[in-house]
Amino acid sequence: MFLSLRVLKNVFGKTVEKNAKLILEDGSVFPGTSFGYGSSVSGEVVFNTAMVGYPQSLTDPSYRGQILCLTYPLVGNYGIGGGTENGEGFESDKIHATALVVSELCGEYSHNCAVKSLDEWMKEQKIPGISGVDTRALTKKLRENGVMNGKIVFGGADVPILDSNLENLVAKVSNKEKKLFEPAKPIGKKIVLVDCGAKNSIISSLLSRGASVLRVPWDHDFSKEDYGGILISNGPGNPVHCARTIENIRKAMKGDKPIFGICLGNQLLALAAGAKTYKLKYGHRGQNQPCTNVDSNRCYITSQNHGYAVDEKTLPPDWNSWFVNANDGTNEGIRHKAKPFFSVQFHPEAAPGPVDTAFLFDEFLKMVDYV
Prior knowledge:
The chain is α/β, with parallel strands linked by helices. It folds into two domains: 18-166, Carbamoyl-phosphate synthase small subunit, N-terminal domain (Glucose Oxidase, domain 1, 3-Layer(bba) Sandwich); 170-367, Rossmann fold (3-Layer(aba) Sandwich), CATH 3.40.50. The protein contains nine helices and 21 strands. The chain has a ten-stranded mixed β-sheet, with helices on both faces. Helix 7 crosses helix 8. The relative contact order is 0.13. Residues 1-12 have low confidence and may be disordered.
């Protein structure tokens, strides 16, 4: 026998009033219930198809300026583990997403490492959320019409809808000072990590392989640093705003030291080489994006989070497309024909997601000279 919706609410949780709204720029309204920090905010509304990993996604600096909708229906069931003092399970020291949209919020978490609920964590971080939203209908609208700017309105406090991609978001998430990270078992190789919003897992992926990591700000002129290779990190927003980063990469490309780009780093390397980028209709955000190596025709399942892509038709003659997305054929990586310069649009460090392409860190470090 089927139970009514009212009875189901009584069995699985108390009935709550819908006191917040997600409003898209086209006028669409999605009512829901406020959780986390009670405030009204504006941002680009995007969706992520991952089943797990909300602590990592929320703390990924690439989500700066975005209202994140999770398509998996139940969120918060394993709570939040670790803490900001050690960064366990986090990709940075705070939540960068502007807000979170979920279908059902789990208030009673269950995990041996959890120390607080998602709701409590978001209150502490002053990040608003809205639950009870028809995330299936929202995702279908964004897939059909493309990502839209929108706002979450809580109470009577309204805010204007703004386009976060018009500003340099990388400058807001990048660390302001350079910092050196040393591995437990150094192998004598030093990597300059250009921090455009770098995830902690990129640093740990290098440290676990014995490389030292010098993290520098997005606009830092690293040409005077002593290093064996360069890694250009992930980050938020439109890559064309990173003119100083592009110029520094272009200067480095006059030499022969290895350069490895990840996510936004793929776009910045392409722009430095002379190619162009463009905005995708709704981007790739999830943990099951299939990418094919155009040389071997082997397909890898990858973790992704990006809204822009490289127009491979604009690549100069000395560059090749390296990976393509098996779903829509968009570019997922480029490689120089002669020099050790390459990049991928997906995340080989995963966190969260599959580690099928983690070997790319090993391939990169093989090219790096000892310092």
